[in-house]
Amino acid sequence: xxxxxxxxxxxxALIIGAFIFANYLIDNKHKPKPVIPKVVKTVLxxxxxxxxxxxxxxxxxNLTALQRVELYSEVQGLFKTxxxxxxxxxxxxxxxxxxxxxxxxYYASVQSAKSDLxxxxxxxxxxxxxxxxxxxxxxxxxLNGFDLNKTTPKLPEISGEKENYFITGRGIVSAFYNVKNxxxxxxxxxxxxxxxxxxxxxxxxxxxxxxxxxxxxxxxxPSIYEMEVAVSKSFADVLKVGESVTLTSLDNTKTYEGKVxxxxxxxxxxxxxxxxxxxxxxxxxxxxxxLEANLNAEKVENAIEIDRNLLLDTQEIYVIKxxxxxxxxxxxxxxxxxxxxxxxxxxxxxILRKPVPGAYAGMHVKAxxxxxxTSDSIQ
Length: 379
Description:
alpha+beta, conserved putative lor/sdh protein from methanococcus maripaludis s2 fold, Elongation Factor Tu (Ef-tu), domain 3, four-stranded antiparallel sheet, elongated, membrane, Membrane fusion protein of RND family multidrug efflux pump, transmembrane
C-alpha cells in the first residue's frame, strides 16, 4: 500500500515538473533575438583628377657589344708570340697586332714570285727601247722603284694598243696579279685590331698550330653597348630612333641613359612583337649585363593611373557615393604589370585606392580621414 502511495506522489511530482519546464521553454521562445551591429569597413580612397599620363613601356634584356669581331684564321701555321699575351681581358689599341702566324715559308714564295715579275719586266726592256722608245722611260722608272722588300707597285698605265699586246703577250700583267694575290694572302698571317678594345675569348695559345677556318677568339669594343628589347606591336608607330631611354640595373642601384638606335622594320610573327635596339655608353657596363629599360611611348590625355587590381573583369571600378560602394564603367587605355591607365573618369569621383576584400555594390564603407594621410588625389 505504501509503495503505491510513493509511486503516485512521484508521478504527480513528475507531471508538475514537466509542466513547469514546458512553460519555461514557451516563455524563452518569445524573447527578442539580439541585434548584430552592422560592420562598416574603413577604406583608403582617392579623388580623381585627370591629367596627361605618359605611357612607359617596360622591357629588359642583356647588353652586347656594338662592335664585335669573331676572329678566324684564313691560313695555317704556328701561332707566334707577340708583344702582348693573347688572353681574355687583354687590351689592344687600334692597329696593334692581335695574332701573328708564322709565314716564313709563304713569305719566301711571295718573294720568289716578285723576283720572277721583276726579271720578266727586265727581260723586255731592250725590246721596249727599240720598238717602243716613247714608253721605255716609264717602264725604266718602274724598275728603278721596284723594291722586293716592299709592296709591289702598280704597273705603269698602258697607253696604246700595241704596247698592251706586247706587255700582255710577255705575261707581265698575269704575273703582276699573281704577285698581288700572294701579297694579299700574306697579310692574313697577321690579324690587326680594327678598333681599340679587349679580348673576351681566346681559344688558342702561343705555339699552337692554327688551321685554316679555325676560330681563334672574340674581340669587342667595351666603350659602347647595345640592348635588344621586344615591344608590343601596338607601339610600332610611336617608337622613334633617338628617343631617350632610362636603363636600370637588376638591383635598382644604378641607372644609365641610353637612346633608341634602331627599330626593326618587321614584326615577329610568333610573338607579335617588334624589336628595338638601345645604345648605351658607360664605363661601369659589361657585356652580358642584364638591364631593365623604360621607353617613353606616348602620352594619354585626360586620364588617370590606378592599381591594376582595382579594375574589375567587367571593365568597371568601385566608386563611393553616400558611404556606399558603387561601380562605374571605364575605358582602359594601357596596361602594365602593376597598373592601368583609364580615360575620361569624371573629375572629383571618389574611388578606392586599395582593393577591399569581399567588396560589392551597395556595401557600406567609411573613407579614412585625411589626418591618417590615406586620402589624396589620383592622377
